[in-house]
Amino acid sequence: MRIPIDWLGEYVALAQDVTGEQIAADLVAVGLEEEGLHGGDLTGPLVVGRVLEQHPEPQKNGRTINWCQVDVGAANGTGEPQGIVCGAHNFAVGDLVAAILPGGVLPGNVAISARKTYGHVSAGMICSARELGLGDEHEGIIVLPRLLGQARVEELGLAPGDDLIPLLGLDRQTVEVNVTPDRGYCFSLRGIAREYSHATGAAYTDPASLPIDPPTEDGYAVELVDGGIDSLDGVPGCDRYLARIVRGMDLTRQTPEWMARRLTDAGMRPISLAVDVTNYVMLALGQPLHAFDVQTLNGPIVVRRALAGEQLKTLDDVVRTLHAEDLLITDSGTRLLALAGVMGGKDGEVTPGVTTDVLIESAHFDARSVARTSRRHKLSSEASKRFERGVDPLVTAAAAQLAVDLLVELGGGTADPAITDVDNHVRAAPISFDLTMPTRYVGVDYSAERVRAILVMIGCTVTDQPDAHVLVQPPTWRSDLTDSATLVEEVARIDGYDKIPSVVPRAIGGRGLTHSQRSRRLVARALAAAGLQEVATYPFVGPGTFDELALATDDPRRTAVRLANPLSDEAPLMRTELLQTLPAALRRNLSRGAKDVALFEVDTVTRPTPGSKAPVPGVGVHPGEEVLRQIRDAVPDQPWHLAIIATGAVERTGWWGEGRRLDVTDVLGWAHAVADSLGVGVERLRTERSPFHPGRCVQLTLADGSIVGWAGELHPKVLQSLGLPERTCAAELDLDVLIAASDHRIQARPLSTQPMAASDVAVVVRREVAFGDVLDSLRAGAGELLESIELFDVYRGDQIGEDEQSLAFRMHFRGQDRTLKTEEVNAARDAAVARAARDHGAVQRGG
To answer: What gap in Å lies between CA 361 and CA 338, rounded to an integer?
Structure first.
């Protein structure tokens, strides 16, 4: 919200030398955060100049510039004419213009100096409206009689050299503050002035306190249709509608400079007299207004809910298909005029030069109804911003009166004496309040008198009760004051947040991180230590993602939660696996020139139960236990997953020798490293699963068969659709399964100081037997004396069968309390070989 300081001064007493910085600081004290200061950044000399000579000079670039001699009086210190180059052509000799001389600074910190251009030394600039920050006009320079009016120029007796900065209001400042959703009343000069009065004690004058014409019985017919779908949770969409008519206006008249200037300073663009007047009133009082061409209306104004599928073309030339909850302003209930509280329609629009009679709508619409319509149609307007935050239902008559008075004065019309005011609004119930509550909640010793004075100051009516409580009736402009807690907040805010002591909370003993949190951090450290980079991706995907990953049409991973209001219409779904979003991160890194990339992500996925749907209770009443249970049951599972994706070389080529490209065994090794870091053993099983290569995919499970995840090489067609290099590998693990299996104490084995004995063994097995399975059998058969085992050689050749392979293992044995004898080592080795023979038909080579 932008607040022109001179406009603010009409509603609250300002010190004569007050600055924008001081006003902003005072507003911050009552919780209105400063967003910026505007204006007041132009420095002179900016003076009246009279064009004495104008010499057009064509240039080689096709432009024609004017070499001018401009009388600036004594402003240049010599009284001699000033030579200035000007590219505009909308002026003539004798015109009074706005000239800034060397040493001046334009908005945007543009310093003016004498400089050579187009073959002349231009000592200054003849300014346009945009260059001075007076508007967007930049086609020509300012000619003062056209801007101010010839009568005004003669009244002021403007002469060359006169200072234009105060005359044009360029010394004025505008303060911009951030209005939070609960402070809708501050979306007006009326509300800001009241807050400034609270902060400084300055005298406040309510701009809504003006003589108001009473309603009559013969006003324009208005019907508020209500009931059934026409209310949200029993709250009508419109509980007050005031209609006034001004006839015989000339809407082609120019908006006066003072009003256009205030609108511009407040951040709004002047459009036409009727629109500017309604915007001016909205900024002043916080009440949005709308104007209809009376001559186009055929019947009563009917406020009703839309019929599903109805269409309305709004003022932004967009045809909108309406929802049954949208509130409409209609002519006779059939011709659609506006989306209530959001934006008007093209039908019934006021047109300068055509419209002479205008109906002014000043209404009070339900905040939730307007907010839902605004979001549903992605249509935010100045009106909707105010209605959805709450507008004072008692300011409607004053706003309409002010608009009528301005239209009569500026448009030359006549106010119709017939006035309609359909008023069904119900005032909020008073709040029972304990005056000691602020002290107990805030920690500052507020006296009962101080609390009462603050409540009265902000507009509340306080009535004593026999039980030491008071009844507080909030003012109609404070719809955010709904209970005792909000009143406590007001007391703390008005008395001063700076008076609340800063107390550092005392740290109490706790358990620190949970087992799940520690485990996730441990997994991340393990992968980072292995050389992988952790990333975080957005959890949003589109339906096309499932096709890119070649998921079957009946794959449960296609069942995803659809967002009601997605950040992007192309990605409205929540991911069901991390590998649905992680490939994009890999692709982005590769596009930036990286070649060898290994990424991992630890995050949640969303797995909804098919058919589950949560009820949507109203926001005005606390839902019952059954409704809460249904909501909780409908919340989708969100397990923690870990995903890995990698491509390129895991060992780079260099002076040390040849490198090695990534393959399935690397990703499988990282998956095992994750399980090992948690102390959980996993088993492998070849399988097929999209998006992996059917012959290069492994399923990881716990000993009890619980699925941990999958690892493997991605399918070539998937890689092609994703735009990734061939042989890219990936893995996805369910961390919740691993962490649940790791929730136990691991008994560490004591380190032995006894000597180690090594023994090598080579066994012949069929080629389809995985070496890891043979290793597991050898380890199980060797017993407790085996300390470690490793594969050190694989042989496939003519000395064994074509379908066979020889696997050579080195086994390390160690006793805890003695030196092992050769017989003990051999016996353990033979037991290991026997177990491998039983499990896999292994034959000891050379045995």
So the answer is: 11
- The token duo for 483 is 């209970």
CB contact at 8 A, 244 and 418: no
Interval 649-670 mean pLDDT: 91
Q: How far apart are CA 76 and CA 144, in angstroms?
A: 20
Residue entry with tokens 């109203």: 618
Written as six digits, the tokens of 48 are 């009246």
Phi and psi based region of residue 161 (left: phi greater than 0; alpha: psi -120 to 50; beta: remaining)? left
Structure tokens that stand for 254 in this block: 């120019």
Strand partners, 343: 339
Report DSSP letters for 237-275, one per residue: SEEEEEEEEEES--TTSPPPHHHHHHHHHTT-----HHH
Query: CA–CA distance from 333 to each of 329, 336, 361 (Å)?
Result: 8, 8, 16
Q: What is the CA radius of gyration of the chain?
A: 40
pLDDT digits (tens, 9 = 90+) for 219-240: 999 999 864 445 666 789 999 9
Written as six digits, the tokens of 211 are 């003589």
Say whether pTM exceeds 0.70: no
Cis omega (within 30 of 0) for bond into 691: yes
CA distances from 786 to 513, 759, 783, 820 (A): 36, 10, 6, 11
H/E stretch holding 588 reads helix 582-591
Q: What confidence tens digit (pLDDT) does each residue in 367-400 have?
A: 999 999 999 999 999 999 999 999 999 999 999 9
SS3 110: strand
Among 815, 821, 839, 834, CA closest to 761? 834
Question: Quick check: 60 and 13 in contact, CB under 8 A?
Answer: no
